[in-house]
Design brief:
With 116 residues, the protein is of the alpha+beta class. The protein has a domain of 76 residues: RRM (RNA recognition motif) domain (Alpha-Beta Plaits), CATH 3.30.70.330. Helix content is 17%, strand content 30%. The chain is built from 2 helices and 8 strands. The strands form 3 sheets. Strands 2-3-1-6 form a 4-stranded antiparallel beta sheet, covered by helices on one side. It has a two-stranded antiparallel sheet with strand order 4-5. It has a two-stranded antiparallel sheet with strand order 7-8.
């Protein structure tokens, strides 16, 4: 079974290929991806690496967590699964949901619901 690792505080010079090569020293790497900003194409400073097993993941975490890369101390740990329903778009499987504040929205204080 594969294990997914989160790699944070990456320098902007790190690419998918360099991330893969650094982690492949500890075992088989299924995938390595540096997250990029979709508007600018610049690295967001973190990425994910998928390795072959939990043992490989433990070895990589022990060896690489806190290691200095281009003057930055990287963070390596097991990735947490995405939390469902935390999208910022306001849409969910149930449909559109109103704002969480009760004083904002239609019918709560005027044209468009702002606070006056």
């Amino acid at each position: 079974m594969t294990s997914k690792l989160y790699v944070g505080n990456l320098p902007y010079s790190v690419t998918d290929a360099s991330l893969r090569s650094n982690f492949s020293a500890y075992g088989n790497v299924s995938s390595a991806r540096v997250m990029m900003d979709r508007d600018t194409g610049i690295s967001k400073g973190f990425g994910f690496v998928e390795v072959a097993s939990a043992e490989v993941a433990e070895k990589a975490i022990a060896a690489l967590n806190g290691m200095s890369v281009d003057g930055r101390s990287i963070v390596v740990n097991l990735a947490r699964p995405r939390e469902a329903g935390n999208s910022s778009t306001g849409y969910s499987p149930e449909g559109y949901r109103a704002a969480k504040r009760s004083d904002v929205g239609y019918g709560n204080g005027g044209f468009g619901g702002g606070r006056y």
